[in-house]
Amino acid sequence: MRASELAVQQLAGPLNDLGYKIELASYDDQANIEVGVTNAKEIVANPEILCGVGHFNSRVMIQASEIYHKEGLAFVSPSNTVPNVTDRGYLEVNRVIGRDDGQGIASAQFAKAQNFSAVYIINQNADFAKKNAENFKREADRIGVKVVGMLTTDETENLDGLSSA
User: Fold this and answer.
1) Is pLDDT at 159 greater than 70 in this prediction?
2) What is the bridge-based pairing of β-strands 51-53 and 146-153?
3) d(CA 16, CA 45)
4) Which end of the chain is flanked by fewer CB atoms within 10 Å, N or C?
5) Which domains are seen in the chain, by residue range?
6) Is the pLDDT of residue 163 over 70?
7) What pLDDT is attached to residue 165?
8) 3-state DSSP call for residue 13?
9) Which helix (H) or strand (E) covers residue 51, if one does?
């Protein structure tokens, strides 16, 4: 939200100079598909809304983007990593962050570029995190970075003291 406010504040000047009024219209989907779809319907019904930024949650974005696509409203996601958000080929739906299926690969390549020769992988116990860890391991093996161990955990905040034992 704050990034969108800052972007409008910093970038609206030239459009304001041309006589356009730029405003941020905020909608909260509450990470709920039903609310997100209701918001999407309201957004596309408003002819003053020319584009959108959001949904934080991929499953909400996927459902809401069906509406944006049908109505031809440009929408960009700052946080959705699930491949299906953009794999459907909708020209109106874009992202500015890497996909789940590329993050682990890019991370392993980064580790190699930082001259790491061995790593220990710790990942959360969630499907996307497990896939990222698997992709990291596969790419690390391919490029010669030794994976000395892996740990999947339900811990989300305090990683001190975790071990593979």
Assistant:
1) no
2) unpaired
3) 24
4) C
5) 2-95 (3.40.50.2300), 100-153 (3.40.50.2300)
6) no
7) 45
8) helix
9) strand 51-53
